[in-house]
What we know:
There is one protein chain. By secondary structure, the protein is an alpha+beta fold. The chain has one domain (9-64): Hypothetical protein (Metal Transport, Frataxin, Chain A). The protein is built from 2 helices and 3 strands. The chain has helices at 9-18, 54-64, and strands spanning 22-26, 31-35, 40-43. A hairpin with a 4-residue loop joins β1 (22-26) and β2 (31-35). The protein starts with 8 loop residues before the first helix and ends with a helix.
Amino acid sequence: MLIQFNMKYSEVERKVSKKGCYFIRDGKKHPIWFSPITGKEFQLSNPKGEEVKTGTLRSISRDSGVKL
Length: 68
């Protein structure tokens, strides 16, 4: 799986949106998104300018089905 380093949450949000993922609700700490690719819900973070940690990026990529 190809993971791009130094990616911000705003970039991740843009990429998963292009692949059909969408926001469904606010969670306790993070917004919850749904992926029609995998049929799973996954979390993104609120601070759009913050960089995503590598492990978190892998998790988002796996749960969303979108190669980041």
